[in-house]
Amino acid sequence: MLWVAVLTLLVAVIALSRQIGILYERIAPMGALTMDSGPKVGEASPVFQLPSLNGQPVDIGAAGAKSQLLFFLSPTCPVCKKLLPILKSIRTVESSWLNVVLASDGNQPEHEAFQRRAELTAFPYVLSAELGMRFRISKLPYAVLIDESGKIRSKGLVNSREQLESLFTARDLNVASVQEYLDQPQFAKERA
C-alpha cells in the first residue's frame, strides 16, 4: 500500500514539474513599461543644460563620451527610494560607459534635504519642470537611457532592478524595449 502511495506521489511530482516548466516558458521577462508619449526611442533627446543642486552645470541629452541614464524621482515616492541603492550600484559598476543623473521638479530645499538624507550628493541632481514635460513624465520612477550620440536608446517606468536593467538589455539588443524584442516573430510563435 505504501509503495502505491509513493508511486502516486512520484507521478504527481513529475506532472507538476512539467507544468512548472511549461509555465516558466510562457511567462516572458517583464521589462520597463514604455509609455507612448514623449520623444520616441531612436529619436534625438531634447538637450538641456541645467544647474545641479550643488550648482554645477549638467548637460542632458547632448552628445558626449558616455551614455546617460536620466532617472526621474521624487522625495515622497516610496518605490523611488527603494531603487536608490540599485542606482548607487549601477553608478559604480557601469561607470565606464554610463553617467546617472537624477531629475525632479519642485521645492529646492526639500530636494536638497532629501539628497543629503539619502546620501545622493555624488549624483548630479537637477530640478526642472520643463525637463519632465519635454519627456512627458507622468508616473514615477521613470528612466530614460540616452546614448553617447544623444539619441534615446530605451525608456520606461521602472519599479524594480529587473525593469531598470531591462533598459540596458534593450540597448544591447538594439530594440526599444524587451517587449518589442519578445514580440518578434520567432518569439511570438513560441509563446502561442
UniProtKB/TrEMBL annotation:
Pathway: One-carbon metabolism; methylamine degradation. It is a single-pass membrane protein. Residues 39-187 form the Thioredoxin domain. Keywords: Membrane, Transmembrane, Transmembrane helix. The keyword Mitochondrion does not apply. It is found in: Membrane. SUPFAM superfamilies: Thioredoxin-like. InterPro entries: MeN_DH_accessory, Thioredoxin-like_fold, Thioredoxin-like_sf, Thioredoxin_domain. The keyword Transmembrane helix applies. It holds the Pfam family Thioredoxin_2. May be specifically involved in the processing, transport, and/or maturation of the MADH beta-subunit. This is Methylamine utilization protein MauD. The gene is mauD.
